[in-house]
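#struct-help
A.M.: can someone run this one for me? Single chain, 433 residues.
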Amino acid sequence: MFSKRSIRRNFLIQLIFASASLIFIFSSFLYLYIERSIYDEKKQELLLYAKNIANNKSISNMDTSSPEAFSSLNVEVIYLKKAYTEVDLYEDTRDEHTYLTLIYPFDLDNISYLKVSKEITLTKILLDKILNYIFIINVAGFILVILYAIALSKMLVTPVKTLSTRLSNMNEHLMRPIKVRELPEEFEPLGTTINHLIARIQNFVKYQKELFIGTAHELKTPLAVIKLKNQVTLIKKRTPEEYIEALKVTNKTIDEMNVIVSNILNIGRQEGAQLDKPVTVDVISVLRQKADDFKLLAENEGKKLHFSFEPNAFMATLQVSLLNQIVQNFLQNALKFTEKSKSVTLRSAQDDIGLLIEVIDEGCGIDESVDLFAPFKRQGNKSGVGLGLFLAKSAADALGAKIKIENRKDGIDGTVASIQINSKLSCVLPRSN
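D.P.: on it. Structure tokens below:
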């Protein structure tokens, strides 16, 4: 019915074995308790008979006695070779009848004892019936346990099978996020992780075509320029100065192509960085280091870099290189589009989700209808290949973080680039006094 690698099969075997053991142990204790209780009652009854006889009291006036109680009662005096002060009780079978016998001290001077016997055949038959009933109940209970285990295992495996079915039917053209709220609470982290992977795959599929087309276009244009320039140069003989000028133009075009190739190589390097082992770092310390590095760069360009970090420390488990790449790209873009004598602000603050990092500039703003995270998307008249934000988005996806760029809403021209780090992989250090 199930293969050896089936989770349901292993669960069924363990549940049935555990339930059968529990039923067997409980039934054994129950039967032993019933048997011991009955034998203790019979022993007390025989002991009471013996005491009354030894004390010359009538046993017919006992409160617990009934005429049927004496029908199988046999009392006799026996003599032993050695005196024993303890009461002895034993059971024996004669002629298919079972007797319970009590040896009770009567006259120790004469080494005489009372031997009180009582037939307990009916009691043994009753115990056998009780044992049979317990066995039948155990068999019925075991069958119910098997049925319950099958139903329970099916119920527990259903979420896993649902996830497996959903994932097995997915391809790059048909991907739908899993509804985490419909999963049991124990499977929510798994569903969230799967949705995160699905989102990354969707982004990769979405941008890969644009990346390939954009790369071909970006490289084709300078190649066409080089070819055209060389053809024009070869049409007629020119002066050495004109050849030198043509070579300079060619070298400049090649340099532009090298920038494009370098940025494309950075994509591959970043994919490798995403596989690096995450480490626990203080994100605030990383931001302070970045602020120190870019403060000198901003001053050299005649601009100001302000920074404000809250809380004092924020520990997170992530790939530091990816975080550095995102923050560095935001700061580079902010300084690039901010005019001289204006300022850029790097700040962080804790919120309900985790840590929010923002880079605010005083540039020209953006067209929010354009997907700036797509490869080779550029705005403004500044130089650039258009892969920086694409790399930042890929890095944020790998970190499980959210990034966005939007225009400022405080009446000042400029943009706000932000990254939201989830607190599930981080913690806040206490403030030092």
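A.M.: thanks! The chain has seven helices and twelve strands.
D.P.: also worth noting: The chain has three domains: 7-144, 196-273, 279-428.
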